[in-house]
Design brief:
This protein has 529 residues and is of the alpha+beta class. It is built from 17 helices and 12 strands. Keywords: Heme, Iron, Membrane, Metal-binding, Monooxygenase, Oxidoreductase, Signal, Transmembrane, Transmembrane helix.
Length: 529
């Protein structure tokens, strides 16, 4: 009886397996004969899930092998979902710029499992809600005129960062021990800045660390469980109840911390807008820790026209605030660690940069100002080389094809998930001289990166911020923060290696791609002049 059941199951599964295998091998053709990109055969129902269960670094190594075998555009399957990986810069440009509207959507994710309607800028479907949210962020928070409002906040965080690093260095010397890793200090400082920009309040250290812990718990849950939860939601809801509960707990903790801060801005807005109380509120001095503008303020003004002109719910604002904090903290602190690690490893580059800083600012200024950085081409070259050599994200957030499209001779079927290998494009030896070396001079006149367009509108050579309609809205402020903090860290300290401890550039995957062995450095305060 058992043998008969096995034979029956085999007979039922064979046609499905044949269909899946045919689709994986690119049998389906487009109007011009284009075929779905090739890829390895998979198992019925599972597809290539067993290949993709590995860590990010293992997946990158797998993709390199697949590209060597099948070409620069490869197909993999997870269940019934077709995932296409593009590592060729020209095909990527054709897809993201030439066919931008057709690839501007995001894959559906199992947000309903966590009570999330998906109304965030990075993950919303391409449509009116996404356009409204992105336009609000760009115009009301990231526009240069708004960014200037946060200049005092950046100066405060610069002082906090310098004081923390200086204190840690002095304690290490006094106790004759190795200095601690700098990454947590970088992350804390960047998080202070983004919390202030988000909620309009300069919080004390315990409050900031509580929010940071809640954010980290949420990010770790999503990073570890996203693939499993998305595979078969009806099944994973049952099989992974414990893991799902961790996600719900992490989201609940975010709400506990964020909603009171959102409510405080809502009450402040009511007072300022009130014809009775507005004058008194405007004349009354605010706390020294309160800023006049914040991201939350802009969210309070949003109305969703297609949904009865309603305001955003607290739940939606919590999600958007979480996104804002994540986008501006982890990527910037990760890039900052990689750049400073390269400057420790390459002292001649650090000294050349310091020479440019001294020439631009002299020895009298308290800090390298934001306007000063505009006169420092080598500083910009150092930051760009850091983003090329060590992009914080090795893949863009996945795109989804809204219709059948053909790019580079390949068919991308409607509904397919499309991924782009950021790191591999920046390391392409056909486009870059010595791509694995840290050479900022490549971005100066005469170098192979001279005039590089990081927006990718003309061509793609490196895409640390993405390309096309879904390009990172925070590109400008990210470059500002990196240039500002790198310049001030080099002006304040000489960054030297720890004796007997080589700077190790091996990568590991957390929420971003970070140093597996976090950077430690001896910091020596520079004398003025």
């Amino acid at each position: 009886m058992g043998t008969q059941l096995l034979l029956l199951a085999a007979l039922l599964l064979l046609p499905l397996a044949a269909l899946l295998l045919a689709r994986q091998c690119g049998v389906r053709g487009g109007k011009s004969g284009a075929r779905v990109p090739p890829g390895p055969p998979g198992l019925p129902f599972l597809g290539n899930l067993l290949l993709l269960r590995r860590s990010s670094s293992d997946v990158e190594a797998l993709l390199r092998r697949l590209v060597a075998r099948y070409g620069p555009v490869v197909s993999l399957r997870v269940g019934s979902t077709l995932s296409i990986f593009i590592s060729d810069r020209r095909v990527a440009h054709a897809a993201l710029v030439g066919s931008g509207a057709a690839l501007a959507d995001r894959p559906a994710f199992t947000r309903a499992l966590l009570g999330d309607n998906g109304n965030t800028i990075s993950r919303s479907s391409y449509g009116p809600v996404w356009r409204l949210l992105r336009r609000n962020l760009v115009a009301e928070t990231l526009h240069p005129s708004r960014v200037k409002l946060f200049g005092p906040a950046r100066a405060w965080v610069r002082r906090v960062l310098a004081e923390m690093l200086g204190r840690e260095a002095e304690e290490a010397r006094a106790q004759a021990r190795a200095p601690p890793p700098v990454m947590e200090t970088f992350r804390y400082a960047m998080f202070c800045l983004l919390v202030l920009m988000c909620f309009g309040e300069r919080l004390d250290e315990p409050a900031v660390r509580d929010i940071a812990a809640a954010q980290q718990a949420w990010l770790m849950f999503m990073g570890q469980n996203a693939t499993v939860l998305a595979f078969w939601p009806a099944l994973t809801r049952i099989l992974f109840r414990g893991g799902l509960q961790k996600g719900l707990d992490a989201r609940r903790r975010q709400k506990e911390l964020f909603v009171p801060l959102i409510e405080a801005r809502r009450e402040r807005k009511k007072q300022l807008d009130s014809p009775v109380g507005g004058g008194a509120a405007a004349e009354a001095p605010e706390k020294e820790t309160t800023f006049g503008h914040s991201y939350v303020d802009t969210l309070l003004d949003i109305r969703l026209a297609d949904e009865g002109n309603r305001a955003l719910t607290d739940e939606e604002m919590v999600n958007l605030c979480s996104e804002f904090l994540t986008a501006g903290t982890d990527t910037t602190s990760t890039a900052l660690q990689w750049i400073m690690a390269e400057l420790v490893k390459n002292p001649a580059i650090q000294e050349k940069l310091y020479g440019e800083i001294k020439a631009a600012c002299g020895g009298e200024q308290e800090e390298v100002g934001e306007e000063d950085t505009h006169r420092m081409p080598y500083l910009k070259a150092v930051v760009l080389e850091g983003l090329r050599r060590h992009p914080p994200a090795h893949f863009l957030l996945a795109h989804k094809a809204a219709e059948d499209i053909e790019v580079g001779g390949y068919l991308i079927p409607k509904g397919a998930t499309v991924n782009f290998t950021v790191a591999e494009m920046g390391w392409d030896e056909r486009e870059w001289d010595r791509p694995r070396e840290f050479v900022p001079e490549r971005f100066l006149p005469g170098g192979d990166g001279e005039g590089v367009d990081v927006t990718g509108s003309r061509e793609i050579k490196m895409i640390p911020f993405g390309v096309g309609r879904r390009i990172c809205a925070g590109l400008g402020i990210a470059m500002l923060h990196l240039e500002y903090f790198v310049a001030n860290l080099v002006r304040e300290f000489e960054w030297k290696g720890v004796p007997g401890e080589e700077v190790d550039l091996v990568e590991t995957r957390e929420f971003t791609t970070v140093m597996k062995k976090p950077l430690r450095a001896r910091l020596l305060r520079r004398t003025a002049g």
